[in-house]
Amino acid sequence: xxxxxxxxxxxxxxxxxxxxxxxxxxxxxxxxxxxxxxxxxxxxxxxxxxxxxxxxxxxxxxxxxxxxxxxxxxxxxxxxxxxxxxxxxxxxxxxxxxxxxxxxxxxxxxxxxxxxxxxxxxxxxxxxxxxxxxxxxxxxxxxxxxxxxxxxxxxxxxxxxxxxxxxxxxxxxxxxxxxxxxxxxxxxxxxxxxxxxxxxxxxxxxxxxxxxxxxxxxxxxxxxxxxxxxxxxxxxxxxxxxxxxxxxxxxxxxxxxxxxxxxxxxxxxxxxxxxxxx
Amino acid sequence: xxxxxxxxxxxxxxxxxxxxxxxxxxxxxxxxxxxxxxxxxxxxxxxxxxxxxxxxxxxxxxxxxxxxxxxxxxxxxxxxxxxxxxxxxxxxxxxxxxxxxxxxxxxxxxxxxxxxxxxxxxxxxxxxxxxxxxxxxxxxxxxxxxxxxxxxxxxxxxxxxxxxxxxxxxxxxxxxxxxxxxxxxxxxxxxxxxxxxxxxxxxxxxxxxxxxxxxxxxxxxxxxxxxxxxxxxxxxxxxxxxxxxxxxxxxxxxxxxxxxxxxxxxxxxxxxxxxxxxxxxxxxxxxxxxxxxxxxxxxxxxxxxxxxxxxxxxxxxxxxxxxxxxxxxxxxxxxxxxxxxxxxxxxxxxxxxxxxxxxxxxxx
Lengths: 278, 364
Description:
The complex is a heterodimer. Chain A has eleven helices and two strands; from the N terminus they run ααααααααααββα. Chain A is mostly helical. Chain A folds into two domains: about 15-65, no CATH class; about 70-275, MetI-like fold. In chain A, strand 1 and strand 2 (about 245) form a beta hairpin. In chain A, helix 2 (about 65-70) crosses helix 11, helix 6 packs across helix 8 and helix 7 crosses helix 8. The two termini of chain A are about 20 Å apart. Helices cover about 25% and strands about 35% of the residues of chain B. Chain B is elongated and about 80 Å long. Chain B starts with a strand and ends in a 9-residue tail after the last strand.
């Protein structure tokens, strides 16, 4: 491959000033992203009386967290969110992995139809599914149940993540599977014993994305659940009441809801990035 | 061990693309056959049909005495080496080698013996615990060969296995494959676009173009008696020179003429050429059959040297004869020839080829 040397950015400037420029630019971008989160954390540590003057007061408290965790409904919402996210991830991956594989390896009419179906689903704006889904879920009698929220989530995952999965499998050399078929595997055997293990980094990255997608999802949860199955994103919004806004409590809940994403960023980032690069 | 027989084999992709056309080929037990041709000629598709990786549209494939048309690859008892090695990336070299035998539920002790033997042959002992990613291209291809050997299949299939290696390694691996075939004589089909590989490895060479077999023969046959102009140009490096000439017969002497060139044809070719008298035919001369100097009477011609390629062992001269015709000659490395020189080249009687310009078939 020919070597391509990029022309230096800001030519003519000494090296140190170029470095300073990049450092400042990076700091500015980081700040723009981090500021709302930092403000959220600050708010979650202030008493209710201080939320509008977060930056002024000196009184800090963990009371908000204590109060929030004392509410049974919020604890229940955390558990529900975690369970639904996990189940949605497991079930959607079961389909997504094989559907992505099919999209990548097969070109027959079935594959083309599946491709077209997914494509159409992806073209329709996310929000326009909510109302029909509400009616379907109502008529099936699964409104405000685990299943009633899980099924739409799994469907959305399949549509969105089959494409990513196809991309991963496109990057894996199919001759490995041919070799396996000659070495004594069936088509399915080659898929399960050779293709899936090779795609494992990508599949784990996808699992993380799936999980976070459902954990953070608000719209479906808002419309398709009521009192029986509280989930964290909906419960968080319910601090906006007729009696006023409990910003401090909302912030404390939000900080806790951020934890999974934060932990992944902290420990799993390397694997997610590596997986997405396959 | 088994013979392979392909009869009236066809492969269509959709209604538009006819990739393999009426291929008939008999490969004897323990024979090493090289399928060669330019890209898109159907050679890889043919191989993949033998392997069972590609459905056949019509025709029959027999391995041993069994028709295997609809058998899945795993039931055909073949082993295959791929261009990009196709090693199982998530397994160690040992597990890669063991994969096929484990699928056959072979006892681990037996697997170990088979792997030891293959590793010994291929010098893989130090690599057994490594992952494929930690190996060089040459080492990976040796593992891929090992994976075939341990299974002791009826047929080895090679799909351009040396194409991803650099020139030096390719030559080494070529020798290694040849040595392996001598040690473990197994029916082998070797697909390549490189005619040197095909000629050096194959007991017989099958030349394909546009889905059709052009010629089947030993390396010497396809080199010495090419079945048509395509084969003549494809086999041999540098390629054969083709010159449009007009046949003249006068006073019992047959000669061919082009601008700046007039060669007297020996009695062997003259008889066949006589009926083409006054017509144009294509004359083929291999670069290695041209010599510097006057040579035999009636076979010399003048050429203008345009490019001199010194290879150490020999010199390739690219010359212009008459107005336009480019002719390459292989001459001894010590020859003192420079660009711009006017030299005398001479052809060898009996080493000239003639083709009908319409059918491109040899005139003989």
